[in-house]
Amino acid sequence: MQFSLIDLELFVAVAEVGSIAKAAQRCHTVASAVSKRISDLESALDAPLLVRGSKGVSLTPAGHALLARARGVLDQAARLEEELKGFSSGVRGQVRVFANISAIVEFLPTALAAFLDSHKDIRIHLEEHVSSKVAQAVIEKVADLGIISDIPSIEGLRLIPFRDDELVLIVQGKHALARHKAIRFADTLGFDFVGLHSDSTLHYRLLREASESGRSLRVRIQVTSFDAVCAMVAAGLGIGVVPRSAATPYTQSLGLVEVQLKDEWARRKLHVCIRIGEKSSPAASQLIDHLTLQSNSSGSRHRRGR
Fold it and tell me: Which of 11, 186, 3, 224 is nearest to 105 (CA)?
């Protein structure tokens, strides 16, 4: 089986615009050349990829499968090109880091700033994903390392403790729950919630805990970030659950109240995850060491402060 990145680029263009002619315009070539390459690709794969009609084209099941993979291949090729160009401009290493939203908002800005300040020849590519997708990306070598919250152990991954992460309930100052210093999550389920997007690990956790309590989670509105959760709670659209460090900057400015959650699951641990049995690149190893050392020193300070 032989096909090129150009074949994949043209196929993705056809799939996205639904027309060979429009794809040819988008890719600055002629329709006959696009059609020929798609036909050759179908022959190489021994499967039809497109259903051709008078009003355009649509994807076959094989076409849908190829589209998902082709986008990934093209993305990896673009990253490889960017990384190699970086070497010519003085960059000596690039590290691909996938992390969940808690790590990105709470801990990584300071940690990465300190690392890059002393490693000016290293470039970091950081993406936000839910913990399950972060772990899968590390296994599939899409990411060099990941930062995830508590998830079931995954074969092939080594988990290194990174940070402790406490979830709290946030409410308006005048809300009925504002008088509580601590509360069980189950006792909040009679109120409307402001939630994160459906793919987030935290949203899934709240749904699961509500279900195990025999209740449902009344989500009134969903947003994509912790600061948006805080803003919507302040506007009276519901209550929310966010990491304490994400809530604290908004408690005074927005008049919010933090209420401790009594549930054990509200005290989470974040981990750096890497592949077992595979040596990391020098740049990735340096970053892992930096994050691990920061974690150890942070833990020591925390224990001394008790």
Answer: 224
